[in-house]
Amino acid sequence: MAIDKQTLTHLQRLESEAIHILREVVAEAEKPVMLYSVGKDSAVMLHLARKAFYPSPPPFPLLHVDTTWKFQEMYKLRDRMAQESGMELLVYQNPEAQERGINPFDHGALHTDMWKTEGLKQALNLYGFDAAFGGARRDEEKSRAKERIFSFRTASHGWDPKNQRPELWNLYNARKNKGESIRVFPISNWTELDIWQYIHLNDVPIVPLYFADHRPTVERDGMLLMVDDDRFPLRDGETPVMRSIRFRTLGCYPLTGAVESTAKTLPEVIQETLLTTTSERQGRAIDKDAGGAGMEKKKQEGYF
Amino acid sequence: MTDTIADPIYKTDALIAEDIDQYLKVHEHKTMLRFITCGSVDDGKSTLIGRLLYDSKMIFEDQLEALQADSKKVGTQGQEIDFALLVDGLAAEREQGITIDVAYRFFATEKRKFIVADTPGHEQYTRNMVTGASTADLAVILIDARKGVLTQTRRHSYLAHLIGIRNIVLAINKMDLVDYDQAVYDGILKDYSEFARSIGITAFTPIPISGFKGDNITGPSANTPWYKGPALIAHLETVEVNSATDADKPFRMPVQWVNRPNLDFRGFSGLIATGSVKPGDAVRVLPSGKTSSVTRIVTLDGDLEEAVAGQSVTLCFADEVDCSRGDVIALADNPPQAADQFEATIVWMADEAMLPGRPYWLKLGTQTVSATVQQPKYQVNVNTMEHLAAKTLDLNAIGVANLSTDRQIVFEPYADNRTLGGFILVDKITNATVAAGMLNFSLRRAQNVHWQATDVSRDSHANLKNQKPAVLWLTGLSGAGKSTIANLVEKKLVRMNRHTFLLDGDNVRHGLNKDLGFTDADRVENIRRVGEVAKLMTDAGLIVITAFISPFRSERDMVRQMMQPGEFIEVHIDTPLADAEARDVKGLYKKARAGDLKNFTGIDSPYEAPEDPEIHIDTTALTAEEAADLIIARLIP
């Protein structure tokens, strides 16, 4: 494959940048880990890691901070990808959340806080990881647009947006004291469209829920929810209805709104994405807390 | 305000709807341009970015609704949409109505994907602008047509030029507010051209625009028939990007990581900085200078026939040459040089001022070394470009200074190669990134001064004295008893037939260091010199005892690094400040408290106690005699 230097495309540049970042962390961190949420961004990040270290398997484990409320299809793909990539898969579930039976139906914001934010901190402390890759992108949300690629965290996992390390050229400062850690975002500069295009061009395996299919759903509080298992408590008068739906983002199934769609192929999904008039995080409840600074506040507390 | 926004010009919706596969093919071949926008909110910067995002459909309906709500609540544009709120993402920025940090925004047109680094305009955020500029191919410098070339215009232009941005767009904005008057535009153009030439900007592209009304943004405006140049987007879509220019330079790739899955495979992974590489190419590994040839360019998608600047690859060699992280793989017959002394331009980015002589980590490409910066030759006034005398560099200061590294690094002048010429400095204690710098050239003396090999080795010196050389480094507050204990230790060692030498803080300041005062910078230099002297004495086989306050951890660590492993013994003479002050043998604390003595350790200058000293002496529990015995017992078990 010959390359005309004039046509080093934006995807080639983004891919090279991400691979460079992944390698820098492996070279400089003591114990890196990749946070793997099984979503499309994680899928791309994992694929990039496989490219970065080929023919070696990526020299770090995958960590899934599990809430026990993910879609069944996500658990299936997670286990398959760990096996295919030859990487160790660590699954962490916050035992306290488990014990108290924290769930998205009864506990609202506490569910995210305990399973995800607390669970992540506990897992990182338990294994002593000093660098964690995450699949966040700057185009997702306002405070993320300002976050560094190497994002420094205090020993208590806090993020100080006003005191970030300057990040120049592609020189990343991975130095830290004991107990401190860095979160690293190799796909910071990718947009939602870039992700889809990359998945399309590289045949990156993704959860089938991104494609339209007939699935059991109920409409609740303006969201279309999928009844993924029998833990879904139906309210009076609710009966699951089969609808052709798909998901733009994937999280805990009771918190993730579906869109009605007939897009069954990647080009069709991309087509829909491009013609839509709402942002992808619109289907998620998490960004809307605490006014305009919801995500910034969560990140200061240690959310990814 | 939404209805004043022109129709989105990127008329791709039809193609997306009708032939998504064709659309994807087009998108797949887009190139990428990174640029920064410089100017303050008043220049209409946020409005311009908001428009670019809106016009390219990067603002969705739900975001627009949120923006409308925010504009009413905290906006500065009355009932109209305040686009600044879209770009200023941090709570503090939204509250104060200013941009503090760099924000990255994304949009795309038919031809290109764009990453905009939106950088703050105020002087106190110079470091943020430099950060945003470091990855940019192009800078858009905004001027308010009503105000013309201002101090900040000059500052932004200087910084963009300093960081090596060759494509500069002068966007003369708010043309609608001066009735699209060509004379206003021409006047500003003339002023700016003169200034640009004076700082070495040879070419720039001026465009009269209105971010608010949309003139000359996406297409030629009917309001400026006298302007014949490209609209802003058309220019951004066609200007040459850095990676294309980099591909024409000689091949260089800093090695990030050695890939060794098994005994049969050894590959060298990195991002190609400049040039291109093919299997069969002769390459040289630096700094060792060993040569080999490339056999394969390995990727998960199969081997490549060629790879160019900007690509991350893994190379295999024909020979088993030694090559590891920090080395640079280069074209065999045109390699870069290695050196350890340089002139550099430095942008200071930390609240704590630069300390000449203090060792910092220097990261350049994939090389990390210890480096010290000398007192600046001058500092640049970023508003007037005047050269000012400077002893140090404060936050946001830009200066030129010589620096030396503790070993040779492979480099090229920044003007030729951003990757091999740009570096960051990292504080060794806090690990904060404290500066960014650009190597201008290496100093000749580094190339011409060589180590003279001598035949009598340091081992022979030590053997002759029948002892193991060491440095007993006593550190502690003034009045802690360092000199007293050091003196006792030396007396006892001499009685044991050991060859010793005592370097005392006060005594050294009468001779070797009599030109130094007590500022932080002078304290650093004081310790550096003492360290070098102590090192020479250990080379001569002596046991050196030093008694210096040596308040900073970094400098004590610097001396530790100079010595052979195990030969540096840090002794913390630990006395509570109240005790030392109560004793006040020399009456110095009294003077310091009265304000007659500045920069006195413990009073108005910090003492950084050792975290893990080899020997810890608690003077409240031990007499000087006992302390001396304890130190000797640890030195000679």
From TrEMBL, chain A:
One of its GO terms (molecular function) is sulfate adenylyltransferase (ATP) activity. It is an enzyme of class 2 (transferase). The keyword Nucleotidyltransferase applies. Signal peptide: none annotated. With CysN forms the ATP sulfurylase (ATPS) that catalyzes the adenylation of sulfate producing adenosine 5'-phosphosulfate (APS) and diphosphate, the first enzymatic step in sulfur assimilation pathway. APS synthesis involves the formation of a high-energy phosphoric-sulfuric acid anhydride bond driven by GTP hydrolysis by CysN coupled to ATP hydrolysis by CysD. Heterodimer composed of CysD, the smaller subunit, and CysN. This is Sulfate adenylyltransferase subunit 2. It comes from Sphingobium cyanobacteriorum.
TrEMBL record, chain B:
Its EC number is 2.7.7.4, 2.7.1.25. GO terms for molecular function: sulfate adenylyltransferase (ATP) activity. Pathway: Sulfur metabolism; hydrogen sulfide biosynthesis; sulfite from sulfate: step 1/3; Sulfur metabolism; hydrogen sulfide biosynthesis; sulfite from sulfate: step 2/3. Residues 30-245 form the Tr-type G domain. Keywords: ATP-binding, GTP-binding, Kinase, Multifunctional enzyme, Nucleotide-binding, Nucleotidyltransferase, Phosphoprotein, Transferase. It comes from the Bacteria. The keyword ATP-binding applies. ATP binds at residues 476-483. Pfam families: APS_kinase, GTP-eEF1A_C, GTP_EFTU, GTP_EFTU_D2. It catalyses: sulfate + ATP + H(+) = adenosine 5'-phosphosulfate + diphosphate; adenosine 5'-phosphosulfate + ATP = 3'-phosphoadenylyl sulfate + ADP + H(+). GTP binds at residues 39-46, 118-122, 173-176. The keyword Ribosomal protein does not apply. InterPro entries: APS (IPR002891), APS_kinase_dom (IPR059117), CysN_GTP-bd (IPR041757), CysN_II (IPR044138), CysN_NoDQ_III (IPR044139), EFTu-like_2 (IPR004161), G_TR_CS (IPR031157), GTP-eEF1A_C (IPR054696). The active site is at 550 (phosphoserine intermediate). Sulfate-activating enzymes, NodP and NodQ, may be physically associated. APS kinase catalyzes the synthesis of activated sulfate. Catalyzes the synthesis of activated sulfate. In the N-terminal section; belongs to the TRAFAC class translation factor GTPase superfamily. Classic translation factor GTPase family. CysN/NodQ subfamily. This is Multifunctional fusion protein. It comes from Sphingobium cyanobacteriorum. The gene is cysN.
